[in-house]
Design brief:
This protein is about 35% helix and about 20% strand. The chain contains 27 helices and 37 strands. The strands form 11 sheets. Strands 28, 29, 30, 31, 32 and 33 form a 6-stranded mixed β-sheet that branches. The structure holds one RNA strand.
RNA sequence: GCCCGGAUGGCGGAACUGGUAGACGCGCCGGACUCAAAAUCCGGUGGUGGCGACACCGUGUGGGUUCGAUUCCCUCUCCGGGCACCA
């Protein structure tokens, strides 16, 4: 073997072997246990970033580990290729999104391949290819037939200057990103998928999804947001109009504390009240112009205006003033709330602001209620007071009594509502999957017949920021109505890109099938055994995918119901941001690679200067790597300088994969150094000549100790990768083993035999993480088989046995001594040994121990 | 604002089920090798006091439970993710 570790040579060789042996292209083998390992496919933004390296290395370590554990492993890769950045690039550079996207894919594929991932590239898919997106269209038509997809109006951000719809991220402080014009809300017809009808199923299934992180299940449950409560009506009779204002509440027990009702600006009663009331109409207009995002709606100042109208309290019959409130959401419940300021924080704030009465009707432990300031306990459950017939009832009894009385009055009843809204999939954009609909003047919206699928997206258009170019493309627009045959216009809206990513994991099982969306191979590979991706996808992508899979299951297209058995959510990759902000003009960001950070010797202050001009730059803290902040680290340079193994090792060692990872160049050097040390250790060992077989039963104490560490390391690495998914501690354990092997000076043949076993074990343990170097080292150690095909070994239980163990002795919980006892010593003898220890006696002094706690195999605590 | 996480030496992190706080790595300090440098190797490295054995302090803040808390409970602060058209 080579004395020097040369990653470029080693990695080219290993990758050639994997490519030529096709070892990562599995076929269905029903007799074998399958393992479908999937990392979230990337958006082809141009270049890989460290987040990709991290994501795909985690998946690759697991795929390779499971492969060595005998599983039939599938690890595919594809491209989430439709989306907004391609249109932005087109606007900036005049390049068609298709060309930009395909070039990015070609470059990023090369980058990913250089990382040596155990991927079956023969299954690669790109969602912008008609072979893929035709099935989006096909299933959309099935959903239309099933009534799951439907058309209704929805609200969008409208830029009045560019005459175009803006994404939320293109609206900055209420203005269009390019034009600076005040953004308006517009109602337009859109297609929706009825995910809400799956809400109960999606919620209930979470309970059994033990392979998902608890926090993701909690987030999804909260997002779906099941609420049990009362739907109640406030009757009204205005000029020429009477009816019932419907509201939903989870606190029917506070109903006698209602002092006002508030409706959303879009509510029909708001519209009615605004007729002939210019001030109110203006307020409604203002609310409608307000933010569309929930985060902005929730943080904006709570404002309202009285309509001058009154509705009647459903139980007391008293008049209740009706307000319009900007904090009432039309999309939740009925778009109306009953205002109980004494027991709801938002209502309290609103009532204080507009001097509405606050009437406490719940008492908790006799605590004094004051209208001066809100207290958290005002919202707690208690006993009804000032509530007439309900006085003295607790929460549950009051809810039942109020619900019964409301039902008796014919004004409502108990109801369960959901926070989850139906999924609007229409996008007024070019670079997406065309929605297969034809708009006919006679027949309305008509589905494109299956025989005419796919509706092809022309790939040569260049958006200019002023609306969807499809809407100006005569060739695309022109079509005939499938129903009446008259000339018609093709729908120009495309689908949300979450549609593309909601089923790609199914297509990987049968990506070569041109005749069907899915086939029987999907039932072999699915569900995904391990799904890996960023925590930022915890709700939307994962919930949409679960929904889509259920729809396909109900249409009898796939057998599986839940697509991802186990989910692993990785943390983000962060780096420091450096910038200068000139007194006038825009902030300029500098890549950390171009910045020199030194420590000022006088005041120990960190000083950052730009290498190019030596002038100071400011630090903006450590945040997620992004193009816009110019703080990304390109893995390409890293791979070229140190090799893929170093990049992989560092990203796996630097932090547990679930946590955020801060970038540091020094750590990379450390990872590189470790591989070089491993390489040198094997080289030096082999240079001493052939190795004799290990005489397991005839070893001295030192040899047994080293062997114990070898097998302890193997057991720990197996557990850390297989169960805990803490690759950083697995790597640390192998580092410790290598340190121990280095300190062990061989004197005889059995010393060398024990070292040989240790090196073989270290190489095997690291092979999922640094597969190229270990591929070469395995061969060098004399094995004829490839390490990728080697079965994962089991630790030798006998080697792990110990005759004596160390016990920690505490006095009053503080560490005072350590004693060695026989491994099988009973509690009584351990206790006696601890009390006899001189250091312990010193602390006990003359007094006697009040209590002695013995934790077998661990410690003794003497309590004085 | 709401939902979900996180906070441990100079730095990244370890401590898995309530039981030795700081494994492993980086950086730094000292030494070896070298004409020199790089690379490599050896030793040291939480803070304070002490020649030393050792002692005291120490896991974001304040409180609680416990023989014992980085770990469990409550409070607050700061940071990160999501909030439905970024993906």
């Amino acid at each position: 073997m080579q004395e020097r570790y040369e990653p470029a040579v080693v990695e080219a060789e290993a990758q050639a072997y994997w490519r030529d042996s096709r070892c990562f292209s599995p076929s269905e083998a029903p007799a074998r246990e399958k393992y479908y390992c999937l990392s979230m496919f990337p958006y082809p933004s141009g270049r890989c970033h460290m987040g990709h390296v991290r994501n795909y290395t985690i998946g690759d370590v697991l795929a390779r580990f499971m492969r060595m554990n005998g599983k039939n492993v599938l690890q595919p890769m594809g491209w989430d290729a439709f989306g907004l950045p391609a249109e932005n690039a087109a606007i900036a550079n005049g390049v068609p999104p298709a060309k930009w996207t395909y070039e990015n894919i070609a470059y990023m594929r090369k980058q990913l391949q250089s990382l040596g991932l155990a991927i079956d590239w023969s299954r690669e898919i790109a969602t912008c290819r008609p072979e893929y997106y035709r099935w989006n269209q096909w299933l959309f038509l099935r959903m239309l037939e099933a009534g799951i997809a439907y058309r209704k109006t929805g609200v969008v951000n409208w830029d009045p200057v560019d005459q175009t719809v803006l994404a939320n991220e293109q609206v900055i402080d209420g203005r269009g990103w390019r034009t600076g014009a005040l953004v308006e809300k517009r109602e337009i017809p859109m297609y929706y998928l009825g995910i809400t009808r799956y809400a109960p199923a999606l919620l209930d299934a979470l309970e059994g999804m033990r392979g998902w992180p608890e926090r993701v299940r909690t987030m999804q449950a909260n997002w779906i947001g099941r609420s049990e409560g009362l739907n109640l009506g406030f009757p009204y009779a205005f000029d020429g109009m009477s009816g019932v204002l419907r509201a939903f509440t989870t606190r029917p027990d506070t109903i006698m504390g209602v002092t006002f009702c508030a409706v959303a600006a879009e509510h029909p009663l708001a519209t009615y009240a605004a007729r002939g009331n210019a001030a109110l109409a203006a307020f409604i207009e203002e609310c409608k112009r307000g933010p569309a995002m929930e985060s902005e709606l929730a943080t904006q100042e709570k404002r309202g205006m009285p309509t001058g109208l009154h509705v009647r309290h459903p139980l007391s019959g008293e008049p209740v003033p009706l307000w319009i409130g900007n904090y009432v959401l039309m999309s939740y419940g009925e778009g109306a709330v009953m205002g109980v300021p004494a027991h709801d924080e938002r209502d309290f704030e609103f009532a204080k602001k507009y001097a509405l009465p606050i009437e406490p009707v719940i008492e908790i432990d006799g605590k004094p209620f004051s209208t001066d300031a809100w207290q958290a306990w005002y919202a707690e459950h208690g006993r009804c007071v000032n509530s007439g017939p309900y006085d003295g009832l607790d929460y549950e009894a009051a809810v039942d009594a109020v619900a019964a009385d409301i039902a008796k009055a014919g004004l409502g009843g108990k109801q369960t509502i959901w926070r989850l809204r139906d999924w609007g999939i229409s996008r007024q954009r070019y670079w997406g999957c065309p929605i297969p609909i034809i708009q006919c003047a006679q027949c309305g919206s008509v589905p494109v017949p299956d025989s005419q699928l796919p509706v092809l997206l022309p790939e040569d258009l260049v958006p200019d920021g002023s609306g969807n170019p499809l809407a100006k493309h005569a060739e695309f627009l022109a079509c005939r109505c499938p129903r009446c045959g008259a000339a018609a216009r093709r729908e120009t809206d495309t689908m949300d890109t979450f549609v593309d990513s909601s089923w790609y994991f199914l297509r990987f099982a049968c990506s070569d099938n041109p005749g069907a969306m899915v086939d029987e191979r999907v039932d072999y590979w699915l569900p995904v055994d391990q799904y890996i991706g960023g925590i930022e996808h915890a709700i939307l992508h994962l919930l949409y995918s679960r929904f889509w899979t259920r729809v396909m299951h109900d249409l009898q297209l796939v057998r599986c119901v839940e697509p991802f058995s186990n989910l692993f959510t990785q943390g983000m990759v962060l780096n420091e941001v450096f910038f200068r902000k000139p007194p006038s003009g825009r902030v300029e960001y500098f890549n950390p690679a171009d910045v020199e950070v030194t420590l000022d010797p006088r005041d120990r202050r960190r000083v950052a200067t730009l290498r190019a001009d030596g002038i100071e730059v400011q630090s903006g803290g450590i945040v997620t790597m992004s193009k816009s902040k110019n703080n990304g680290v390109d893995p390409q340079a890293l791979v070229e300088e140190f090799g893929a193994d170093t990049a992989r090792l560092f990203t796996m060692f630097a932090a547990p994969p679930e946590q955020t990872l801060e970038w540091s160049d020094e750590g990379v050097q450390g990872a590189y150094r470790f591989i070089k040390r491993l390489w040198k250790a094997v080289y030096d060992h082999l240079a001493d000549g052939p190795v004799e077989p290990l005489e397991r039963l005839d070893l001295d104490e030192a040899q047994r100790a080293l062997r114990r560490q070898t097998h302890h390391t193997l057991a720990k690495v197996t557990d850390d990768i297989g169960r805990r998914r803490t690759f950083n501690t697995a790597i640390a354990a192998v580092m410790e083993l290598l340190n121990a092997l280095g300190k062990f000076a061989p004197r005889g043949p059995q010393d060398r035999a024990v070292i040989h076993e240790g090196l073989n074990t270290a190489v095997l343990c690291l092979s999922p993480i640094i597969p190229h170097a270990t591929h070469a080292l395995w061969r060098a150690l004399g094995h004829t088989s490839a390490i990728v095909d080697e079965p994962w070994p089991a630790a030798d239980a006998e080697a792990l046995e110990q005759t004596t163990i160390e016990i920690v002795v505490q006095v009053n919980g503080k560490l005072r001594s350590r004693i060695r006892v026989a491994a099988n010593a009973d509690g009584q003898s351990v206790r006696e040994a601890a009390l006899a220890d001189p250091n312990v006696r010193k602390f006990i002094g003359d007094g006697a121990a009040r209590k002695v706690i013995v934790v077998p195999g661990k410690l003794v605590n003497v309590v004085l």
